[in-house]
Amino acid sequence: MSKRVLIVDDSATVRQQVRAALGIGEFEVVEASDGAEGAETINRLTDLAAVICDVNMPRMSGLEMLESVKRDPKHLLLPIVMLTTEGQHELVQRAKAAGAKGWIVKPFKPELLLAAIRKLTTV
Amino acid sequence: MTARNKQNLDRLVAENCLKLFADYKLDIQVREPGNSISAEQFLLCGIIGFTSKQMRGALVLATTREPLERTNPAANPSHRDWICELANQLLGRVKNQMLCRGVAIFASTPIALRGEHLSPILQQRLVAELFTADGGVVCVWMDCEFDEGFELPESGEFEAAPVSEGEALLF
């Protein structure tokens, strides 16, 4: 059975890129276009294996979404990886402190994203 | 904007624009000075505003159809979405270089504009670079102002970003 991965990004092109990178069969990709929709999707879908999340988005940023989601104990073990153009040390540290499992800077290499998600979703 | 700041920022934006398009497998070259720009041929431009303690403004990336289509990795491409993402990724690269120079930039979300005569005001002292790609033109300019007395360092003196473009850091 394929594992379900959520991609949260306001760019439809990036969401398509992630969908293509995670391949067909191994992962089922679901999408959200900002942090607010991402948080709502995480709370609604109980079987997510991982979340890939942009930082700079309208309505709610990726870091705000991460912090909001991780405040709920039932999401403590859900792996969340940030996929962003940002490289600021403070933002990386903030994500790590909030419970993110990784930080990838765009443009991403598909094989690297796939390897990271495989590693984080392997029990 | 001082001439030195303009020169430093100009170089930074141009270098990062070349790298960005190279990452999407499109070789672009700086256009020879004096070549006029056919602004009416631009399909779209992506604009992303930014602010920092020392400077503020917007980065504008305009392209003709070909560079957009040749770099878009999506199966069902949206030109509007892609020009926004390219502008976002270009500013991201510039931001990471500016961090090494002690300038922390905060960006807004990008927007796309379509118009009949999109072009930089070249007679003003804006940072603008034109590039040619196979069958197309890419143009980037930064419309920005610096605080009085601020000098943008030529090279980075501060700690580099912990993750570079295309790299991953797992915690």
Number of strand elements of chain B: 8
Number of strands of chain A: 5
CATH-assigned homologous superfamily of chain B: CheC-like
Please trace the helix and strand order of chain B, writing H or E for each element: HEEEHHEEEEE
Assembly state (oligomeric): heterodimer
- What average pLDDT do the residues of chain B reach? 83
Poorly predicted sequence stretches spanning 5 or more consecutive residues of chain A: none
Mean pLDDT of chain A: 95
Tell me, briefly, the overall form of chain B. globular
Portion of residues in helices of chain A? 40-55%
- What's the number of helices of chain B? 3
How many helical stretches of chain A?
A: 5
The CATH architecture name of chain B reads 3-Layer(aba) Sandwich
Q: In sequence order, what are the helices and strands of chain A, one letter per element?
A: EHEHEHEHEH
Give a short account of the largest sheet of chain B: 7 strands, antiparallel
Which fold name fills CATH's third level, the topology of chain B?
A: Chemotaxis protein chec
Describe this structure in words.
The complex is a heterodimer of chains A (123) and B (171). Chain A has 123 residues and is an alpha/beta fold. Helix content of chain A is 41%, strand content 22%. Chain A has five helices and five strands. Chain A has a five-stranded parallel beta sheet with strand order 2-1-3-4-5, with helices on both faces. In chain A, helix 1 crosses helix 5 (110-121) and helix 3 (62-70) packs parallel to helix 4. The longest helix of chain A is centred in the C-terminal third of the chain and has 12 residues, at 110-121. Chain A starts with a strand and ends with a helix. Chain B has 171 residues and is an alpha+beta fold. Chain B has one domain: Chemotaxis protein chec, CATH 3.40.1550. In chain B, strands 1, 2, 3, 4, 5, 6 and 7 form a seven-stranded antiparallel beta sheet that branches. The model of chain B has no long low-confidence stretch (mean pLDDT 83). Chains A and B meet through helix 1, helix 4, strand 5 and helix 5 of A and helix 3 and strand 8 of B.
